[in-house]
Design goal:
- By secondary structure, the chain is α+β, with helices and mostly antiparallel strands.
- The chain has a single domain, classed as RelE-like (YaeB-like fold).
- Strands 1-5-4-3-2 form a five-stranded mixed beta sheet.
- A hairpin with a 2-residue loop joins strand 3 and strand 4.
- The longest helix is centred in the N-terminal third of the chain and has 16 residues.
- The radius of gyration is 12 Å and the shape is globular.
């Protein structure tokens, strides 16, 4: 059963502000993440020190919270690589 994707307002705004091709690429990865968050083809990783994960899409990082018990993935932020972990 696929996970439900929730997006914070700031992540949604960031996604909408991107050029169309980038936006489509990120949206496709987010949808694949919802279908199967354990897919090894997705470049995901647990972040150390915080209960968050990251999904790498080129130079972009999608920081998200994964709640397996209720099958929800909450997209916290979408940032360029250099700013993602601040």
């Amino acid at each position: 059963m696929p996970y439900k994707i929730l997006m914070r307002r700031q992540a949604q705004k960031k996604l909408q502000s991107l050029p169309r091709n980038e936006r489509v690429r990120l949206a496709e990865k987010i949808n694949r993440l919802g279908d199967n968050p354990d897919d090894p083809a997705l470049d995901t990783k647990q972040l150390s020190g915080v209960p968050l994960h990251r999904l790498r899409v080129g130079d972009w990082r999608i920081i998200y919270d994964r709640q397996d018990a209720v099958q929800i993935i909450a997209i916290e932020k979408i940032k360029p690589r250099g700013d993602a972990y601040k």
